[in-house]
Write a structure and sequence with these properties.
The structure is a single chain. By secondary structure, the chain is an alpha/beta fold. It is built from eleven helices and nine strands. It has one domain. 46% of the residues lie in helices and 18% in strands. A hairpin with a 2-residue loop joins strand 8 and strand 9. Helix 1 runs antiparallel to helix 2 and helix 2 packs across helix 4.
């Protein structure tokens, strides 16, 4: 099994009971204690990481860093991921005190909100989407709903939904007949519909495009959905910079995604290449923020 569909078959690490215990300790004893616990937790997951996963992470980091990945690089990526998980616990429960969030491109959201115009937000498994959701508290109060597959939801998703019931309500499950109608209604209200465009569940159509120096499979589904919704498209990344520090980046991507019937394949590949190019640039600038712990390019790449 290769490519971005491989993640769907990966077992989730960490039991539901352990996750709930960590969340209770962090919320009960405070963020500093939760942050201190990240060190042994990160060491445990790094030390017990399956060999195939470690190889995959090393290969990604080598491409993003432009050099061979050292043990310290793996540590930083795992620690960054653990940090965003801890912060989700606090952000989802409304405990934002002590967090510093800088925003680039906020004027794009403000201008669209002033026009009452909905936007499609293309993101990736990078940094924290909960930090992106927190943009409402940064001066752009807009409705944000995510179009996503929920079939692979695990213990972590169950925990986060229990911390903030509104989180589950903010997700529009793909695969249901009413999904596109719900997304269109959000756009008509001037809201934002988000899509993660760097991986897809098994069975989605994949197209190979250049990414970090080699051909990698990207799903055609998110870009096709953006074309169907036919709204302005922006890219959005919630990047972890350090303890309780985030940088939210919004940038224009397209006035609308167009996939003409007669040139559909070429047009779709062109949009995917543009997305992959920009994602690669962000990965090189913030290499420890991209969380895909499997063979993204396929074995032997």
């Amino acid at each position: 099994m290769t490519g971005t569909t491989a993640w769907a078959a990966m077992p989730e690490r960490g039991s539901a009971a352990a996750l709930r215990l960590m969340a209770r300790l962090a919320l009960g004893l405070g963020w500093p204690v939760g942050h201190a616990l990240l060190y042994p937790v990160t060491l445990f997951f790094l030390a017990t990481s399956p060999a195939a996963q470690t190889r995959a992470v090393r290969r990604y980091l080598a491409r993003a860093l432009g050099r061979a990945a050292r043990w310290q690089d793996l540590w930083r990526l795992y620690f960054c991921f653990a940090s965003t998980m801890l912060d989700r616990v606090f952000l989802l429960t409304g405990r934002r005190r002590g967090y510093r969030v800088e925003v680039e491109g906020l004027e794009i959201l403000r201008a669209a909100a002033a026009r009452g115009q909905g936007l499609v937000l293309l993101g990736a498994h990078m940094g924290s989407f909960e930090a992106l959701r927190a943009v409402g508290g940064a001066g752009a109060p807009v409705e944000v709903r995510m179009l996503m597959h929920t079939g692979n939801a695990g213990a972590a998703d169950a925990l986060f939904d229990s911390l903030d019931p509104a989180r589950a309500a903010s997700i529009i499950p793909l695969g249901r007949p009413e999904a596109m109608l719900a997304a269109r209604e959000v756009l008509e209200r001037g809201g934002v519909v988000g899509l993660l465009a760097d991986r897809a569940p098994r069975g989605d159509r994949m197209l190979a495009v250049a990414f970090l120096g080699a051909q990698a499979p990207f799903p055609g589904g998110p870009m096709t959905l953006a074309a169907i919704l036919h709204a302005p498209v922006v890219l959005g990344f919630g990047l972890w910079l350090g303890p309780r520090r985030y940088k939210l980046c919004f940038e224009p991507f397209a006035d609308a995604i167009d996939l003409p019937r007669e040139t559909r394949e070429a047009a779709l590949r062109g949009w995917l290449e543009r997305y992959a190019t920009r994602l690669g640039e962000v990965c090189r600038a913030y290499p420890y923020n991209w969380f895909n712990f499997y063979e993204f390019w396929g074995k032997g790449s």
